[in-house]
Structures are given as C-alpha cells and as structure tokens.
Amino acid sequence: MSPEEADALLALDAEHVWHPYGPMPGTVPPLLVTEAEGVRLRLADGRELVDGMSSWWSAIHGYRHPVLDEALTAQAGRMSHVMFGGLTHEPAIRLATTLVELVPDGLRHVFLCDSGSVSVEVAVKMCLQYWRSRGRAGKRRLLTWRGGYHGDTFHPMSACDPDGGMHALWRGVLPEQVFVPAPPPGFDRAPEKSYVDMLEREVARHAGELAAVIVEPVVQGAGGMRFHSPGYLRVLREITAAHDVLLVFDEIATGFGRTGAMFAAGHAGVTPDVLCVGKALTGGYLTMAAALCTPEVARGISAGEVPVLAHGPTFMGNPLASAVAGASLGLLRTGDWQADVARIERLLREGLAPAADLPGVVDVRVLGAVGVVQLDHPADVAAATRAVTGRGVWLRPFRDLVYAMPPYVTEDEDVSLIAGAMVEAARTA
Ligand SMILES: *Cc1c(COP(=O)(O)O)cnc(C)c1O
C-alpha cells in the first residue's frame, strides 16, 4: 500500500470510524494493519510488530493458522450461515459436544451466542429465570467482588467494578448489584480467613435477593489484571450452595489455557452452575461466545411458567464461527498448549524481573501466559506505545498497567522481545 493510500484510509477512519473506548472524532490515530501471520502484524508502512495482546486474549494460535484457515474456507464452501431456530448443523453440534467435554464436569448444556457480553447477559437471564421458575422471583440481584470486568452491555456493566465501570455516570440506569471488596491479591497465597468470613456473611445476608454470585476466577482481567487464590473459588462454591445462590464463572478471558489450566476453575477443582466462555473460543477468527449450564439450571428454567429460555440471537451458532471454534479446540486437544503456556510463563518471569527495580513500578506478576507490570501512576499511553512499537512489539497499556498475553505459539525470542518492550514501556511511561 502506498503512503498516499494509507493516509487516505486513515483520514476516512478519523472521519467515520469509532474505535473502542474512544471519543469521536478520535484523538490518537490508530495503526493501519494490512496483514497478520503467525504472531506478527504487518502495518501499511511495512513495519512488523509482534502481537503481545493476542488481539485481546483471542488469537491463541496466532494469525493465519493453516488448520483454522482450512476449517473456515471448507465451511464457507458448504454454508456460511443458517438460522438456528428450528434448524441445526454439524459444526454447532460438534462444537457444543467438545465444549462439554473440556469444561469442568457437570456443565452439560450450551447456549451459543455472539459475544462475551451477550453470554453474560444470557448467564444472568438463566439465573434470574431459574429462581423465577422456582417461585422465588425476588432473587434477582448479583453479588460480585470489586475489580471485575464482565462486558459493556448494561447488565454485564452493572457487575463491573463500580469505579472502572463509571457507575456514578449510570446511577438509576444500571441495576444495583451487591459489591464486596476485591479478593486479596496473590495466586499462591492461602485464602485469608477474615476475607472468607466476610464473603460468607455477605452472601448469607443478601441470600434472599441474590440470584447469583458472578466472578472471574483466578484472574481479574480488564478490571485490573489481578490474580487471587483459587481457594476463594472453593469457598464461593460452598457458601453459594449452602445459601441457595447460583455461581457464575466468567471465563471469557481465562478460558482455553491462558492461566495454565484449561479453565481457571480447574485450579480450584470447582464447577460453577453457569460458565461463560468467549474471546479465544474461535482462536480469534470470528466473534462467538457461549454460556454453559448444569442440568439442574436447565431443568429449573424448563419447569417454569415460561418454560423456555427467551433468547435467540440472529447469528446464534453461526456455522463459520462454529467450524473455526471446533478447529481451535481441536488444536488445543492435540497440541501441547500446557508446555507452551509454561514456557511463556518462565520467559515472562525472567524477562520482566528487571522491571521490579524500576522507579514507579509497584508490582510485577506473571501467571500462565499473562504478564503484568503495574505502575504507581497512570501510564502515559502514547509514550508507552511509541516505546513498544519502536522495539517491534504491539501492546496496549491501560490505566496503571503494562501487560501482555501473547499467542501460545510465540517463540522464545519473541516472548523475550515482548518482555523487553514491557520493561522499556514501564521505564518510559
Ligand atoms: C472481554 C470480556 C467480556 C466481554 O466480552 P466481549 O466479547 O468483548 O463482549 C466479558 N467478561 C470478561 C472477563 C472479558 O474479559
């Protein structure tokens, strides 16, 4: 692409295209990407950047993976889409079956939908409707801990961290959920008794009005990239069961191996009543997510006055997305993602260690293929972005965080390049 063509496109972008979490017109021009292959993004000006973000947790196998490309083109040769009401097809059936085999034991039913936020909407609808069916319509609030992120549509927003989710702006619009403090940090630290007691007390106190507790297990993602002990998940499982409250795990970011277990719930050996997956489900090729539930939840809903789950996105079960998701799960099953995630974890630990001594850095943490450098101030995003792209890496720092979650196929030198760029960004930002 000539520099003139690129400039013309960027001018049109500035004129018409809204970007995530941005004003209109935009203030910082985005980079123009023309192709991506393996772990590299190619820019219009010919530069190549190693993608340390996996396109927001999703491209776990890298770009243009031959197996995923083949699954997509083969499916396009048969049918790209067909409605899911009254019709079904092999890619969706196979995908749902494989998902049930991979997720924690006991989740047997799969509702396919368009995006992570929609899967959280569906999960919440399942929980509210379950209690309504059982004659307890008053149980319709959610309890969650602070620091969470569950998506950008209104109900998921209501469970996001109240400060990060700008709840003050939305008072009177968002349903008011019950918030407890964020879990004490540290994956390896034993659960703190005072926090466990508080959880127990709050769930018990609100049980009559709670449909569910919803949390991101082990890693809180976009709400602050914090890690906590899997022990808290076991505690939540016990106390929700004891107080007639459902438990929802949002594994949209953590699912499919990212934290070193296929699902983060696996670190705790816990099965929630409802599980949300998304992001890496299609290996980053197409938008698709799912809410899975136990037979108990499904039976409860189906025994109610309105015995159906009244939800049905137009593109539910899209065959292209189902086919590529099935192929992505196939790669996880046959490949050695555990070894790759462990390798990336080790290299990130080594490569990020120097950041701990930098002024302005308060914490450096790594879990699975997730690396985080936390600053004691909001990052200068423009300066940090210049620093990392100058080193041939793509990262997107936000708030006080410089973080990466590279594709599992990232080779050693490229992981080290990413870690080096993070240290440089922390120095500059
Ligand atoms: C990204 C994310 C969502 C929202 O998913 P979208 O596909 O962006 O709607 C929800 N929960 C978690 C934990 C996420 O990381």
Automatic annotation (TrEMBL):
Which biological process annotations from GO are given for this protein? biotin biosynthetic process
Q: What does this protein do?
A: Catalyzes the transfer of the alpha-amino group from S-adenosyl-L-methionine (SAM) to 7-keto-8-aminopelargonic acid (KAPA) to form 7,8-diaminopelargonic acid (DAPA). It is the only aminotransferase known to utilize SAM as an amino donor.
Q: Which InterPro entries match?
A: Aminotrans_3, Aminotrans_3_PPA_site, BioA, PyrdxlP-dep_Trfase, PyrdxlP-dep_Trfase_major, PyrdxlP-dep_Trfase_small
HAMAP family hit by this protein = BioA
Pathway membership: Cofactor biosynthesis; biotin biosynthesis; 7,8-diaminononanoate from 8-amino-7-oxononanoate (SAM route): step 1/1
Cellular localisation: Cytoplasm
Question: Assembly and interactions?
Answer: Homodimer.
Cofactors, names only: pyridoxal 5'-phosphate
Q: Which Pfam families match?
A: Aminotran_3 (PF00202)
Q: Which gene is transcribed and translated to give this protein?
A: bioA
- Note the superkingdom of the native organism: Bacteria
The UniProt record lists the EC number as 2.6.1.62
Provide the protein name.
Answer: Adenosylmethionine-8-amino-7-oxononanoate aminotransferase
User: PANTHER family from the xrefs?
Assistant: ADENOSYLMETHIONINE-8-AMINO-7-OXONONANOATE AMINOTRANSFERASE (PTHR42684)
Kindly state one GO CC term assigned in the UniProt record: cytoplasm
Q: Which family does it belong to?
A: Belongs to the class-III pyridoxal-phosphate-dependent aminotransferase family. BioA subfamily.
Site feature: Participates in the substrate recognition with KAPA and in a stacking interaction with the adenine ring of SAM: 21
Q: Which UniProt keywords apply?
A: Aminotransferase, Biotin biosynthesis, Cytoplasm, Pyridoxal phosphate, S-adenosyl-L-methionine, Transferase
Q: Where does substrate bind?
A: 56, 149, 279, 312, 396
Q: Which residues carry this modification: N6-(pyridoxal phosphate)lysine?
A: 279
